[in-house]
Amino acid sequence: MNIFRLAGDVSHLVAIIILFMKIRRSKSCAGISGKSQVLFALVFTTRYLDLFTSVISIYNTVMKVVFLALAYATVYLIYMRFRSTFDSESDSFRVEFLLVPVAGLSFLENYAFAPLEILWTFSIYLESVAILPQLFMITKTGEAESITTHYLFFLGLYRALYLANWVWRYHTEGFFDQIAVVSGVVQTIFYCDFFYLYVTRGKYEPGRDFDFVLYF
């Protein structure tokens, strides 16, 4: 494992912990897209089914279990414990427009037509677009709490570090995972758009730059 992969994993974990602790401490999930969190929980579930079939390393196993536990704990806080604070009106992204194409693509473009491989591919494709409901929610409300922007920042940093990881592995190992790289680039583009808006304007203005999302 190289430094970019490790730093990426840490950034990803920090993002999830920030969100979980924000909801738990404030006892509110205002500004948080429950749909994005359900999609991320689905990503981890379909990606980490190999927990039951193989052990790569203690680090790998522990991280998978932690990501799964935090993902489902976050979904529980949003839809069960603090449901009264959940803004379902603003969290209105049509997730079927993501799930159906992603499912179809995972059957058409994969490395092996086997159940676990298809589910792993599905998770990679889904992760690249799972943040869209959250970004869509920002377009509807016109703003995001600072803690939400911190969460998105660390998710974006995680993707950027993973891109560096893939470049490093290609140059040092000759390894290139086309599905993961292309999906990662797509996901990073969404975060770059978000970063640009918050660096230049400090707050999102409805109807600008994310207009493509509104069609959903």
From TrEMBL:
Q: Which UniProt keywords apply?
A: Cytoplasmic vesicle, Endoplasmic reticulum, ER-Golgi transport, Membrane, Protein transport, Receptor, Transmembrane, Transmembrane helix, Transport
Q: Which GO terms describe its molecular function?
A: ER retention sequence binding
Q: Which domain of life is it from?
A: Eukaryota
Q: What is its main location?
A: membrane
Please give the family membership noted in the entry. Answer: Belongs to the ERD2 family.
Q: Where in the cell is it found?
A: Cytoplasmic vesicle, COPI-coated vesicle membrane; Endoplasmic reticulum membrane; Golgi apparatus membrane
Query: Which PROSITE patterns did the record assign?
Result: ER_LUMEN_RECEPTOR_1 (PS00951), ER_LUMEN_RECEPTOR_2 (PS00952)
Task: Identify its membrane topology class.
Answer: Multi-pass membrane protein
This chain is encoded by the gene named: KDELR3
The organism encoding this protein is Oncorhynchus kisutch
The protein, known as: ER lumen protein-retaining receptor
According to the record, the segments passing through the membrane are 65-82, 118-138, 150-168, 180-199
Biological process terms in GO annotation: protein retention in ER lumen; protein transport; vesicle-mediated transport
Q: Does the keyword Membrane apply?
A: yes
Record keywords: Nucleotide-binding included?
no
Which PANTHER family does the record match to this protein? ER LUMEN PROTEIN RETAINING RECEPTOR (PTHR10585)
Quote a single Gene Ontology cellular component term: Golgi membrane
